[in-house]
Amino acid sequence: MKNMNTKKGIRGFQVVEEECIWMKAGVVSLHTCNKLYDCFDCKFDKAMTRAMGARATQETASNWAAFFKKKYDGASRPCRHVVTGRIQQPKICTHNYECHDCSFDQMLDDIEISRAQSRPELVSVAGFDLARDYYYHEGHTWVRMEHGGMARIGFDAFVMKLFGQSTFNPEMNIGSHMEKGESGWTITQDHQVAKVLSPISGTILSVNQRVKKDALLLHDDPYQDGWLFIVEPDAPLKNLRKLKFGDASIRWMEKENSKLIKLMGPEYENLAATGGEPVNDFYGLNPEIGWDKLVRTFLKT
Description:
- By secondary structure, the chain is α+β, with helices and mostly antiparallel strands.
- The protein folds into 2 domains: 94 residues, no CATH class; 183 residues, CATH 2.40.50.100.
- The strands form 3 sheets. A 6-stranded antiparallel sheet has the order 3-4-5-11-10-7. The chain has a 3-stranded antiparallel sheet with strand order 6-8-9.
- A hairpin with a 2-residue loop joins β8 and β9.
- The longest helix has 18 residues.
- The protein is elongated, with a radius of gyration of 22 Å.
- The relative contact order is 0.14.
- About 3% of the residues have low confidence.
């Protein structure tokens, strides 16, 4: 089993760069970013701006922009997304670092909302796939933090195998607010309905229409194309507290598998000990265990 170490701060999916943009601007000698370059929601950015005698608002560029203007010549100023590693190809800033009013900046957000990023590395835990660098809620949903502080949400592979023929019913639209630990959407199977808890609080920016139309995508690729929502989180650091990450998510999944084995009884426990793969529709093959019991035990609703 692979080790999945944890680090302090928000862990972003394939966000390689860690240097704060103030450090990249040459204002401070050492400071790492733990906000995934979500500068407008960063306490350090606001504190630095106050210290420099300027106001930090979403209507005016943060003060690091002034230092970027001094550091780079006007005709060859790199886009801040090149500097922070969000994009790899060369790109010149033609908007004087007024990112809040930049069409290219908005386009990047739109692209990342509309499509999933690179495929995650998977770790097998008791026969269930678990994606690295994802956060996991006890109700078997995941959160993937991406560049700029956006969060992508979906189901884990465990619950998709548990309710293998279920369909996704979002119930919330773009602009709706989800609240961590409260019912946010439902899944259905054979007229049975189960509420699902939201893993974080935030405003919905996008709903994956493909999984509404094609339930197989949800089950076959839960960590990539089968995502459910893109959310702008409220207070990201606070939102991620108590979610499982790294080695903690592995230990949690092992315990969840043990619960499932006990529900099946001694006969299945002996079968599981032989190393057999989990079935793709546990409820469909074992309806006698009861829909409500599975929902209470694993979805926590």
